Amino acid sequence: MRYVYPDGKRKALTFSYDDGQRFDERLAELLRSHGMKGTFHLNSGRLGIERGRDVYVKPEEVKRVYAGHEVACHGVQHRNPPSITGQQLVLELQEDRKALERLTGGMVQGLSYAYGNYNQETKDVVRSLGIKYSRTVQDTKMFWAPADFLEWHPTCHHNNGLLELGDSFLDVPGFYELPVMYVWGHSFEFGWSGDWSVIEAFADRMAGKNDIWYATNLEICTYIQATRRQEFSADGMTMHNPTAVSVWVSTAGGIIEVKSGETIVVGEP
To answer: With contact defined as beta carbons under 8 Å apart, do 217 and 39 qualify?
Structure first.
């Protein structure tokens, strides 16, 4: 028995883009048009600001621009977490959540660390605020799910071998269980240069694959954490799902969906 993603899909692909500048609109539409989902980490205190070439999405545009995607925190004012007190960090993150939840009408439970900086105190505060995951900027060039979702190291920045890693992901080795390719960056990197070719080529190459689950950061986090809470009989053949979401497993007899609260035989001695 091995875990698989919803509907028996073997792999997951997700995107994570920071800062909320106006180029997010083009990127969000690119992903939508390819059947993909991403997570956009916004600084609520900068929304609507125009400062030189930095032009941010307006608050009233958030729901439309990011439709079908996830909106997550990046700090009200993009302050460096280890440089401020715990109290200031609470305000920086909690007020960001509250503002973004008002704009989206949903719960905001994700984060990416401003500047990619964090320490143990940062993680403790983040956890206490009900944030489920946070992305770093440490590229792994691998496809493992994180051991600690508050230190979610991405696969790569889009300028760090994206197309080559995409090809590797399409043929990811079988020893990976619940492999995930996690791409991050800033849409202004495309907008300021005028060169969208890399992300467009990647979207074209990766779209429409029957074995890939195209999901937001939070969807993947929620699902993988659910798999880690499954309970088994002493012989490992009976599985109980105590979580609120279905979990899919691949067995000798095929793909099985274990629904919330269900107990089911998933193997034979």
So the answer is: yes
Write the CA distances from 139 to 80, 124, 223, 233, 254, integer angstroms: 20, 23, 22, 38, 34
* Percent composition of the chain: helix, strand, coil (DSSP 3-state, to 5): 35, 25, 40
The answer to whether residues 136 and 118 touch, using CB atoms and an 8 Å cutoff, is: yes
Q: How far is CA 233 from CA 32, 90, 259, in A?
A: 42, 42, 17
Cβ-proximal residues to 11 (8 Å cutoff; 6+ apart), any chain: 5, 143, 169, 172, 179, 180, 181, 209, 211, 212, 213
Note the pLDDT tens digit of each residue in 105-124.
999 999 999 999 999 999 99
CA 193, 153, 63, 61 torsion: positive or negative? negative
Task: Look up the pTM and report it.
Answer: 0.97
